[in-house]
Design goal:
The complex is a heterodimer.
Chain A: H1 2-5, H2 15-26, E1 29-42, E2 45-58, E3 62-66, H3 73-81, E4 88-93, E5 96-97, E6 105-108, H4 120-130, H5 135-148, H6 164-177, E7 182-186, H7 194-210, E8 214-218, H8 222-228, E9 231-236, E10 241-247, H9 262-275
Helix pairs in contact in A: 4-5, 4-6, 5-6, 8-9
Chain B: H1 5-10, H2 19-42, E1 50-55, E2 71-73, H3 76-97, H4 105-112, H5 116-121, H6 133-145, H7 157-173, E3 193-197, H8 205-217, H9 227-258, H10 260-273, H11 282-289, H12 294-317, H13 321-329, H14 334-368, H15 376-386, H16 390-418, H17 427-463
Antiparallel strand pairs in B: 1-2, 1-3
The chains are: A alpha/beta, B mainly alpha.
Chain lengths: 298, 468
C-alpha cells in the first residue's frame, strides 16, 4: 500500500490528454444507451441483469465495459448488437433505434464463431456477400482486410488450421469487412494465452487507428481495459448498474511500456477498487499447516 | 511393479495403439471368426454333433426314410446301423431255416440302388442316373470283383462283404440287369455308413465358396433372374426407398431443426409413428400399391423416413447457435441464415447420419423383398433356406454384408474428400479432394479475373472525359 500512496490521482490529466478528451466529446454520439433494463424470468423468480443503464459513446471512441462477474456485461453487449431485446429502455446508433441485429453493428465473439466450412477469405467475404456485393468486389475487399490483419498467406486456409489468435484476427477482419459503424467485442481475447493476448491488444489498437470505427469492448481484465480504452464503463453486479464512466488519462498512442506509468497504475488501481471495494475484500486464503520439506529456499 | 511387456505394449488404458498394430488387429478381427468357422468345420473332434449319411438303408416297418445326405444325430446313428444289421441277421436266419419270404423283387430293386450315392460320389454315374438299374447292376458286379474300389467314401469291410455275398446271389442268376431275374428272396442290405458332420445350418467354408461360385455363374432357366440381376434389383429397391426418404426426410428434418414451429407440429407424431414397425404395413402397402416394386420401395421408405426426420432435426439443432448469431450481425437475412449457415454447417454431420440410416435401410430391404411378389436376393435366401440349402444361403448373406460394409467404408472415406474443412481428412482424401477441385478452382479463378478486368475496363471508360 505504501507504493500506491505515491500514485497521482486518477483524474489528473496532462494538458494534451484533456485537450484530446475535449475534442472527443465534440464528436457526434455514435451509440446512445438510455435507461436500459433487462430482467430474466427464471423458475426462482425474476432476475434483474441490467438496471437502468445509461451511457453514450462518441464517434471513433474506444470504450471498455468492465465489471465483476454477473454484472451483465455480456447481456449488455448482446442487447447492443440486437441479439437480445431489452425489457425496457432504448439503444440508438447514430440516432437510429436498434431493433435487431444488423450489418451497421459488427460483433466479435469470444468463441471466434468463424464458419468452419469457409476459407479465411470466404469468411471475410461473408458479410459483403450478404448485402449483395458481387463476388469479385467482395473478394477484393476481403483481400485488403486480410492483409490488414496480416493473414494474406492463410487466405485459403480453413479455420481449423489456424491458431486461436489467428482465428480472432480473421473474426475481426470479417466484422470490419462489413464496414459497420460500431464494433462490439465480447471478451474477444479471453480464450487466448497471455502473450498472444498482449500482441492482439496492440494489433487491435493499430487497426482502430487506421479504420473509422467506434469500438465497445467487453473485458474482465483490468490491464486490458486501461490499456485499450478512452473511457472505461464500470458496472456493478446484481443488478448491473453503471458505477462510473472513467476517462483514462494515459496518452495515445499507447504501447505496452506504459503499463507502469503512474497514470496507468492510478487508473488501474481506481478501477480495481471499484470492482473489488475495500470493505468486501476477499477473505484471507486459509493457511496451510503442513510442514513442507526444505524451507531454507523459501 | 513393472507390467509385463505384452501388457505395456498392447493394453494401454484409453490410449491409441501405433498404426501398424491397429491395422494388424483390424485384419485379425476378420480372420478370427473365419478361423473359428474353419476349425469347427474341418477338425472332426470339434463339435460335429451330427452324422451325415452317405449310404442309407430303408428299414422294414419304419416309415421314416433317410436318404444319402441326410443328417441324423450322432447318438441315433449306431442304433440305426444296428437295426439294419439285425434285419440282415433275420434274412440270413430265414435263408438258413429255409423259410424264405417271396415277392421281394421290388424291394431288391430298391436295395440295389443303395449303392447309387457311392457311385455318384466317385463319378461312376452322373447324379441324374441314380435310378439307372442296368448301370448300378454293373457297379455291384465291379465292386464285388474288385474291378472298382470305393475310396471316398470307402465301403466298410462289413459292407464290402455284403456286396460280395449279394453279387454271389445276383451274378449266379444273371450277368446283366433284368427285373425278371432278380431274386424273390431278400438280399442283404448295406449297413448305413456316414461321417461326423456339423448341422446343416453350418456348412463348411469350401462348401459355401463352391455353392456361391456355382450360383453366381450358373445359367438360369428362361424367365428367372440371374444372381447379378437379383443383386441389381435389390440395390434398386433400397436406393429408390432411401432416395425417396432423403427427398422427404432431409427438408422436413431441417425445417424441424430450424423452426420450433415445425418441430412441435411434426415431431410428436413422427416420434409416435416410428414405433410402429414398418413391416406391419406390408399388407396395406401391397393393397394400396399393388404388386411390383412400389410397395417394397414404400416399405424401405417408411422404415427410414421417420428416423431420418428426427435424426436430421437433431443434427440441425446441434449446430452451434453462435454461428447463426455471427451471421446475423453480419447482416444475414433469415433465408440466408438457412441456405448459407445452417445447411453448409450441418452437411458433414448430415452425411454421417445418412450413412447410418443407409445401414438401417438394408434391414428393411430384406423384409421389403418378402412382401407381395418375393424378389431379389431375399427371394433366393428364402427359397433355398426352405430347402435347407444353407451353403447357398450364406454367400448371399455375406454378399449383403460386404456390400453394406464396403459402401459404408467408402462413404466414410469420401467424408474426408467432401468436407476437408471438418479437419478429419486423411492425407489421401485431402489429395483427392484437391485433385478433384483443381479444375473447378482454376476455371473459377479465371472467370473472376476476367470479370474483374471487365469491371476495371468499364470503370476506366466511365471516368474518361466524353470529348476525348
Amino acid at each position: 500500500m505504501t507504493a500506491s500512496s505515491t500514485l497521482p490521482d486518477y483524474r489528473e490529466m496532462t494538458p494534451e490528454v484533456s485537450a484530446r478528451f475535449e475534442r472527443l466529446v465534440q464528436r457526434p454520439v455514435a451509440l446512445e444507451v438510455r435507461e436500459l433494463t433487462k430482467r430474466f424470468e427464471t423458475p426462482k423468480g425474476a432476475v434483474t441483469a441490467l438496471d437502468r443503464v445509461s451511457f453514450s459513446v462518441h464517434k471513433r471512441e474506444f470504450t471498455c465495459v468492465i465489471g465483476p462477474s454477473g454484472c451483465g456485461k455480456s447481456t449488455l453487449v448482446r442487447i447492443l448488437a440486437g441479439l437480445e431485446t431489452p425489457t425496457s429502455g432504448e439503444v440508438r446508433v447514430y440516432d437510429h433505434p436498434v431493433v435487431g441485429p444488423g450489418p451497421d453493428r459488427g460483433m466479435v465473439f469470444q468463441s471466434y464463431t468463424l464458419f468452419p466450412w469457409l476459407t479465411v477469405k470466404e469468411n471475410v467475404m461473408f458479410g459483403p456477400k450478404m448485402s449483395g456485393t458481387p463476388d469479385f468486389a467482395a473478394e477484393r475487399e476481403a483481400r485488403q482486410w486480410i492483409e490488414m490483419v496480416g493473414l494474406s498467406k492463410f487466405e485459403n486456409a480453413y479455420p481449423h488450421q489456424l491458431s486461436g489468435g489467428m482465428k480472432q484476427r480473421v473474426a475481426i477482419a470479417r466484422a470490419l469487412a462489413n464496414q459497420p459503424r460500431v464494433l462490439f467485442m465480447d471478451e474477444p481475447f479471453g480464450a487466448l494465452d497471455a502473450q498472444t493476448r498482449c500482441q492482439m491488444q496492440e494489433y487491435l489498437l493499430e487497426i482502430w487507428k487506421n479504420v473509422d470505427i467506434t469500438i465497445v469492448f467487453i473485458t474482465h481484465d483490468l490491464d486490458e481495459a486501461v490499456f485499450l480504452s478512452d473511457r472505461i464503463l464500470v458496472l456493478d453486479a446484481n443488478p448491473g448498474r453503471v458505477r462510473e464512466m472513467i476517462p483514462v488519462p494515459v496518452p495515445r498512442p499507447r504501447a505496452s511500456s506504459q503499463l507502469f506509468d503512474p497514470a496507468f497504475m492510478a487508473t488501474r488501481k481506481h478501477v480495481d477498487e471499484l470492482i473489488h471495494p475495500p470493505g468486501t475484500e476477499k477473505k484471507e486464503a486459509p493457511v496451510l499447516r503442513m510442514a513442507a520439506p526444505d524451507p531454507d529456499i523459501l | 511393479m513393472t507390467r509385463p511387456g505384452i501388457l505395456r505394449n498392447w493394453f494401454l488404458i484409453r490410449r491409441d495403439l501405433p498404426h501398424g498394430r491397429r491395422l494388424l488387429l483390424s485384419i485379425i478381427s476378420f480372420l478370427l471368426p473365419l478361423a473359428v468357422w474353419t476349425l469347427v468345420s474341418y477338425v472332426p473332434w470339434i463339435w460335429h454333433p451330427d452324422m451325415k449319411i452317405r449310404i442309407s438303408a430303408e428299414r422294414e416297418g419304419v416309415t421314416t426314410v433317410f436318404t444319402s445326405g441326410d443328417h441324423v444325430s450322432r447318438e441315433f446313428f449306431p442304433e440305426f446301423a444296428d437295426a439294419v444289421r439285425q434285419e440282415n441277421q433275420a434274412v440270413l436266419a430265414a435263408r438258413a431255416s429255409g423259410t424264405v419270404e417271396s415277392g421281394g423283387k421290388r424291394k431288391n430293386q430298391k436295395l440295389l440302388r443303395q449303392i447309387a450315392p457311392v457311385a455318384i460320389d466317385h463319378g461312376w454315374l452322373p447324379y441324374t442316373e441314380a435310378q439307372n438299374d442296368p448301370e448300378l447292376y454293373k457297379i455291384w458286379r465291379d465292386l464285388a470283383s474288385g474291378t472298382k474300389v470305393a475310396t471316398d467314401p470307402a465301403l466298410s469291410p462289413e459292407n464290402l462283404e455284403i456286396v460280395r455275398q449279394n453279387w454271389a446271389t445276383l451274378g449266379a442268376r444273371s450277368p446283366e440287369f433284368a427285373y425278371r431275374e432278380l431274386p424273390d428272396e431278400p438280399l442283404l442290405k448295406l449297413v448305413p455308413q456316414g461321417d461326423p458332420a456339423n448341422p446343416v445350418y453350418l456348412p463348411a467354408p469350401h462348401e459355401v465358396l463352391k455353392a456361391g461360385y456355382r450360383d453366381f455363374t450358373a445359367e438360369v432357366p428362361e424367365g428367372e433372374p440371374t444372381m447379378g440381376q437379383r443383386y441389381a434389383h435389390s440395390l434398386r429397391v433400397i436406393l429408390a426407398g432411401f432416395l425417396w426418404s432423403c427427398l422427404i426426410g432431409i427438408p422436413l428434418g431441417i425445417l424441424c431443426g430450424v423452426f420450433d414451429f415445425f418441430s412441435k407440429l411434426f415431431e410428436p407424431f413422427v416420434d409416435f409413428f416410428r414405433y410402429m414397425p414398418a413391416p406391419t404395413f406390408s399388407t396395406l402397402l401391397v393393397a394400396v400399391l399393388l404388386a411390383g416394386d412400389a410397395p417394397k420401395v414404400a416399405l424401405v421408405f417408411i422404415g427410414t423416413v421417420f428416423q431420418m426426420i428426427l435424426v436430421v432435426s437433431k443434427t440441425t439443432k446441434l449446430l452451434d447457435p453462435s454461428l447463426l448469431e455471427a451471421a446475423q450481425t453480419l447482416g444475414a437475412k433469415p433465408r440466408q441464415m438457412i441456405t448459407r449457415v445452417v445447411i453448409p454447417g450441418i452437411l458433414p454431420n448430415l452425411y454421417n447420419d445418412l450413412r447410418i440410416l443407409l445401414g438401417w435401410a438394408w434391414t428393411w430391404l430384406v423384409i421389403a423383398e418378402l412382401i407381395g411378389v418375393k424378389s431379389g436376393l431375399t427371394e433366393f435366401i428364402e427359397t433355398q433356406g426352405r430347402f435347407r440349402n444353407f451353403d447357398r444361403v450364406f454367400p448371399i448373406i455375406i454378399l449383403i454384408g460386404v456390400t453394406g460394409f464396403v459402401t459404408d467404408q467408402v462413404l466414410s472415406w469420401l467424408h474426408g474428400v467432401f468436407f476437408p474443412w471438418a479437419g478429419k481428412s486423411g492425407k489421401l482424401s485431402r489429395a483427392v479432394a484437391d485433385a478433384v477441385m483443381w479444375p473447378v478452382r482454376t476455371v473459377a479463378a479465371g472467370a473472376r479475373e476476367r470479370i474483374a478486368a471487365d469491371e476495371a475496363d468499364r470503370e476506366l471508360r466511365r471516368n474518361r472525359p466524353a470529348n476525348s
